[in-house]
Amino acid sequence: MKKAVNRMTISKNDALDLYIALSRAGQWVNAHADRDIRQHGLNRTEFGVLELLYHKGAQPIQQIGGKVLMSSGNITYVVDKLEQKKLAVRKASTEDRRLIFAEITEQGRQFIENVFPKHTEVIEQAMNGLSPEEKRTASQLLKKLGKYAQEHFK
């Protein structure tokens, strides 16, 4: 019986150690990314929404939150800020006027095209603690972990 308790304790400790390591790694990588984004007058969420609009085209405002992991109330605020900065606009759907889309402006497109390559370099630099092979392995394992956690979320 004692061995089973030890295995369970080790397993719990492994899970907690991984959780802490994952959280800290994410925090520090995000610190690099956030510092870079702030230099351009945006926060992480504004940048994420703008990048989504650039790469995926106009998006229904109600669906953006699920794609950038934010509540819909916050998305309204973020789109307001992007509109004030002339980086995005709202447009009513031609099929259903209740449906409002956020769309990147030409100024927003130019902004992303100028900023995104350097931002990618900042993230690559922050990830250089792992070899290319370790990055691929970590990515695969974290996707597996995320999928499992999502499927078992009740």
From TrEMBL:
Regions that span the bilayer: none
Keywords in alphabetical order: DNA-binding, Transcription, Transcription regulation
Pfam families listed in its UniProt record: MarR
HTH marR-type domain ranges (all copies): 15-147
Domain of life: Bacteria
Protein name per its UniProtKB record: HTH-type transcriptional regulator MhqR
Organism for this UniProt entry: Paenibacillus allorhizosphaerae
